[in-house]
Amino acid sequence: MFNFQAASAVIKESVEPLLEEYRPPGITSLKFNKLSLGTVAPKIEGVRVQSLKKGQITMDIDFRWGGDPSIILGVEAALVASIPIQLKDLQVFTVIRVIFQLAEEIPCISAVVVALLSEPKPRIDYTLKAVGGSLTAIPGISDMIDDTVKTIVTDMLQWPHRIVVPIGGIPVDTSELELKPEGRLTVTVVKANDLKNMEMIGKSDPYVVVYIRPLFKVKTKVIDNNLNPVWNQTFELIAEDRETQALTVEVFDQDIGQDKRLGIAKFRLIELEPETPKEITLNLLSSLDTLKVKDKKDRGNCTIKLLYHQFNKEEQLIALEKEKRILEERKKLKEAGVIGSTMDALDGAASLVGTGIGAGVGAGVGIVGSGLGAVGSGLSKAGKFMGRTFTGHSSKRSGSSTPVNSIHENGGAKPL
């Protein structure tokens, strides 16, 4: 029988720190006021064995859940008291990939890998209702919550990201199951043209945010009062799976209070050939979700240069070591108050990966995101999340960080 009470407790302990980790800048606090999964059990509608190889079985499971949960989020924003928001009519449909690592000793399974497949795209449908208040109290709150849920799913659970769970309490080597850095993407943000003007007086003050994973964003400098800005700034990002991941490019207008997004675009990494430079011009959209695109007017374009480098074994090991060092550096930066919201994009990072340059930390060093975060005692006891060990300590934003690197316009390494 499905143990809903135990599952609710594990999910709350696991997911609540992620809500804080991925909390959008417009929200100051996002927590569960109430979480109960109800009484309707999930359904497994199909199971397919995808591969059988020595010591390993890979299966895809069709999972559906149309339950009766009681989920209430406590949402706070600047100058707004906590508003209880209820998630109603929750429907979940996804395909779960499960990889069993086999062992000779009972229970004959030493570890399990769990991830959501990107195709067909995971569906999580729900409606939002304010309890004793109005959703209009926090402008854009529905979109913020939708984006937070989508980001957590795609950045933490969707393949190639995965949960690695050792089984049986016996120490086992799960290194071959864990997600590893695969390559380095060098991104040069060249310029933008014909940007949308968001100002009543004067012109927008644009800057660009680029990232592969939302927690590891970097941004260019701000160009004041210009709809055709030129940046020529270069960054390095780590890719973990070129076949499934994409580069996101967002252009913002710096403003008093919350910055306004001028446009967004994506470019799939699979379209790049390793070691082959490529210059592209991306047309900017108001949203990547075509159902939310209400403004059909041209938002201009952004020109970028890309170069993908595939890691060799030695570079991959260096990248993994750099992650551990950045974890410690990020803890110090958070304690010093340098890191605020982990969804903020800052102008730089604390490490160069695969270059042999040391990872130093100093005042003014911009760090993007605080890593994967401890997801509570539920998953931390299970073992490793995306190949990173969880300690279950109280720091909500401790965790491994993928190194991201900023380079000066002249191509030299940025001093740290």
UniProtKB/TrEMBL annotation:
It is a single-pass membrane protein. One of its GO terms (cellular component) is membrane. Residues 310-337 form a coiled coil. Gene3D superfamilies: C2 domain. Keywords: Calcium, Coiled coil, Lipid transport, Lipid-binding, Membrane, Metal-binding, Repeat, Transmembrane, Transmembrane helix, Transport. SMART domains: C2. It is found in: Membrane. Residues 166-282 form the C2 domain. It comes from the Eukaryota. InterPro entries: C2_dom, C2_domain_sf, SMP_LBD, Synaptotagmin_plant, Synaptotagmin_SMP. Residues 390-416 are annotated as: Disordered. PROSITE patterns: C2, SMP. GO terms for biological process: lipid transport. GO terms for molecular function: lipid binding; metal ion binding. Residues 391-408 have a biased composition (Polar residues). PANTHER family: C2 CALCIUM_LIPID-BINDING ENDONUCLEASE_EXONUCLEASE_PHOSPHATASE-RELATED, EXTENDED SYNAPTOTAGMIN-RELATED. Belongs to the synaptotagmin family. This is C2 domain-containing protein.
